[in-house]
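Quiz preparation item.
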């Protein structure tokens, strides 16, 4: 199984980004997906998770109301829509399909 994130970049505070996570293999539709983020020197922080059928979704308090997690089983892809971005959202964002991880995508929010 391979996990690959994309969609990171540099954005001004208040802006939006949409991260994508492509997961190889044929079990995506029965798999839950989670997003994490990490700032160098700090522990990796859980951001959001979605159950295998999309019926169960959870967010960290720090992103609730601003971020939306979703998955498209036909494309083997999960998404993290990030709105109203803040400088404190700056981090490397990782997608996880237990026990696999992607390489991460950098999100930088300027003030």
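Solution:
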């Amino acid at each position: 199984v391979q996990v690959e994130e994309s969609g990171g970049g540099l954005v001004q505070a208040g802006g939006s980004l949409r991260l994508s996570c492509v997961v190889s293999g044929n079990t995506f539709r029965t798999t839950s997906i989670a997003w994490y983020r990490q700032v160098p020197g700090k522990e990796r922080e859980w951001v959001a998770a979605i159950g295998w059928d999309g019926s169960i979704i959870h967010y960290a308090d720090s992103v609730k109301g601003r971020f939306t997690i979703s998955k498209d089983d036909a494309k083997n892809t999960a998404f993290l829509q990030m709105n109203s971005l803040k400088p404190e959202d700056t981090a490397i964002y990782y997608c996880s399909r237990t026990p696999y991880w992607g390489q991460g995508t950098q999100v930088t929010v300027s003030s």
